Amino acid sequence: MRSLKKGMSTKKRSSNRNKKAGDNYRLVVESSPSLVRELSTQHTGFPYALGTVGQITGGTINNGGANSNYYFFYNWKFNKGDSECKSERVKVDVTIIPGPDAPTGEATQYFTSGETLENLEVSGTNLTWYSNQNGTVIPATTPLVNNTTYYVSQNNGQCESEVFAITVYNQLGFSDINKAEFTYYPNPVKDVLNIAGKSDVSKVEMFELSGKNILSQNAKAKNVQLNLSTFASGVYILKVTSDKTTETFKIIKK
User: Fold this and answer.
1) How far is CA 252 from CA 95, 146, 233, 249, in A?
2) What local confidence, expressed as pLDDT, does residue 83 receive?
3) Residue 7: inside a domain, yes or no?
4) Residues near 16 by Cβ (< 8 Å), separated by ≥ 6?
5) What is the DSSP code (8-state) at residue 203?
6) pLDDT: is 176 or 23 the higher one?
7) Cβ-proximal residues to 59 (8 Å cutoff; 6+ apart), any chain
8) Are residues 241 and 169 in contact, defined by beta-carbon separation less than 8 angstroms?
9) How large is the average pLDDT for residues 166-173?
C-alpha cells in the first residue's frame, strides 16, 4: 500500500478483473491501515451507493466504535461488461409446422349476375377471401364484379397458406342451361371452330372478356363453322342461340 498525503489525495489502482453479478464481495487491504477520516454529519454511514451497479453495505475496521474516526473507501469505479443484464441460456425446442399449399382452381372464372365468391370453384378448406394482396378480408357472400381479381387462402387449423388469385368475368348474363343442346370443337381452336346443335342454330356471337361483341353471324342450320384464323390468341365467350335455348361457352384461341 502507499501512504497518502494529508488533505485531498487520490491514488488509483486497477484490478482489471471480471466479476459476476452478486453480493458479499469484500475489498481487503493490509492490517492496521492508516486511511481514516474524521466523523462528519454529512455522512450518515453505510450503505454507500455505487451508482446503479450496487452499494457498499458495511465495514470491519471500526465496527466496535472504539475511536472517533472511520475509514472511507468510497471512490470505487465499476464498468459493466454488457449494456443489458442477461440470464443464463435455456434450451428451447422449436417444432416447425409446414404450412398448407395455396388453394387450387382456375385462375380465370366466369359468373352470371348475382353470384358471389361462394360460387367460384376453389379446392381448399377453411377458405379466407381477400380483395387485394395486402390482406383486406372480405366475406364469402361478396357479389362478384366483372374483370376483378380476388385472392383466397386456406387454413389447416394451425397455419394459413399463400393466396391464390382468381380473376372473374361476367358471362354477359346468359344462362348455362341444357349444355347438351350444342357441341363445339376443337377447343382450343386454331382456325375453324365447329358448332353442332340438336336443332337449328339461329345465331352465333363471339365476345371479348370485357363484353365487347366482336362477331355476330346469323344461321339456320344444325352445323355451323366459324373461321377464327384472324382472331388474336386469347380467351373468348361464344354465345349460341337456337329456337329452344341460348348457351354460352368459353373458347380458347391459339
Assistant:
1) 47, 19, 8, 10
2) 54
3) no
4) none
5) E
6) 23
7) 46, 70, 71, 73
8) no
9) 76
**Structural domain count, the chain:** 3
Residue 29 has what pLDDT?
Answer: 53
pLDDT classification of 45: cutoffs 50, 70, 90: low
Q: Are 241 and 202 in contact (CB under 8 A)?
A: yes
Residue 211 lies in a domain: yes
Contact 135, 153 (CB under 8 A): no
Is residue 16 a part of any domain in this protein?
Answer: no
209: domain CATH number is 2.60.40.3080
Model-level pTM greater than 0.85? no
Select the highest-mean-pLDDT range: 6-15, 23-32, 158-167. Answer: 158-167
